[in-house]
Design goal:
Elements: H1 2-5, H2 33-52, E1 56-59, H3 61-64, E2 67-68, H4 72-76, E3 80-81, E4 89-92, E5 102-105, H5 116-127, E6 138-141, E7 150-151, H6 157-171, E8 176-181, H7 184-192, H8 195-198, E9 201-207, H9 218-224, H10 231-241, H11 244-253, H12 256-259, H13 263-272, E10 276-280, H14 290-297, E11 305-309, E12 315-319
Parallel strand pairs: 1-3, 5-6, 5-8, 8-9, 9-10
Antiparallel strand pairs: 1-4, 2-7, 4-6, 11-12
Length: about 325
């Protein structure tokens, strides 16, 4: 800026400092070998549980070998090799001709371990009363860079979209339902803002999304620089924000222009592609101002919840939006 105007800028009267997420130094806390041994054990247990629940693992050399801690279960028990060179995934095969498969993208943590029961419950909910030739498939991506691992940098937006397209084409997924949690909403935004892939999304469910109102400081400040005070904030700070892999991913690969999702974009997809959209927001969130996000999605017009009866006769609460 100073070069463009031909002179320097004088210091301001205030003491505020800008938050430059992808420019500021990366702050991370070291992890012990004992900690990574625990992660290895958790990864192995996750693999075993998903196999018991009928999911099949599709790995790659980079996600099985070029990673620390090692992944012996992924290396020795892969059902098949992923067609994408740097993207591994778990799959519940899709057989239905009338219903659409589900694409699940997890958030920051220890990989799919916290999601195993959710994936199993989801499988039961959509398939418990159906024959083997009418099963809804579940495709669950592994994002290892935000899973307490030391590995190669996270895929860029174009590369993520290219490799995901390879997987979708190999599975013959022409249309699918997109579901993601927390940081997974960044990858969901890649999909929803890509002209070719967004046409395949029949419905979207974003759980605790971080990409809505991303131009506000809440997400970047609360996750990266806030001084923790409560026990939950300390847990988020140490196990999430300061993990070396997570800190590097956020500090050098989380670009605002790639990850922001605007309400107008959602409405356009709903109109042009007949896409259904739901955002599930917590009442209290450590990172996101959920009340602001809810008001933004509702266009500032929110009515009181009302009791309605669904098609199956069951009653539930629903918020009507004008």
């Amino acid at each position: 800026v100073e070069d463009s105007i031909g002179h320097g800028l004088t210091p301001g009267a205030g003491k505020a400092k800008s938050l430059r997420l992808t420019i500021d130094p990366i702050e991370a806390q070291w992890r012990s070998l004992v900690w990574y041994a625990i992660i290895l054990l958790v990864d192995t247990l996750t693999h075993i549980r998903l196999r018991i629940y009928g999911f099949k693992y599709h790995g790659t050399r980079s996600t099985s070998l070029a990673i620390f801690p090692p992944r012996p279960a992924a290396l020795l028990d892969a059902t098949a090799t992923s067609p994408a060179p740097s993207m591994s995934y778990w799959l519940r095969p899709h057989t239905s001709k009338t219903r659409l498969p589900i694409l699940w993208i997890h958030g920051i943590g220890v990989g799919l371990h916290p999601n195993v029961e959710f994936m199993h419950d989801l499988d039961i909910a959509v398939n418990k009363c159906n024959e083997k030739d009418d099963r809804v498939g579940i495709l669950s991506l592994e994002i290892l860079q935000i899973s307490t691992r030391l590995t190669a940098p996270i895929l860029t937006r174009p590369e993520f979209l290219r490799q995901l397209t390879i997987i979708l084409e190999s599975l013959k997924y022409k249309r699918f339902v997109l579901v993601s949690h927390s940081y997974g909403s960044a990858m969901s935004t890649y999909i929803l803002t890509d002209p070719s892939l967004s046409n395949r999304v029949a419905a979207t469910l974003l759980i605790d999304p971080v990409t809505l109102l991303l131009h506000m400081p809440d997400v970047a400040y609360n996750f990266t620089v806030r001084t923790p005070k409560s026990a939950s904030e300390w847990g988020l700070w140490y196990f999430g924000s300061k993990d070396p892999g997570v800190a590097y991913t956020l500090g050098r690969h989380f670009f605002w222009s790639d990850n922001v999702l605007w309400r107008e974009q959602i409405l356009m997809l709903m109109k042009q592609n007949n896409m259904r959209f739901t955002a599930s927001l917590a009442g209290r969130d450590l990172i996101v101002d959920t009340y602001a996000v809810g008001a933004y999605l509702a266009g500032g017009k929110k009515s009181d919840p009302v009791l309605v009866r669904g098609a199956n006769g069951a009653k539930h609460m629903e918020r009507k939006v004008d």
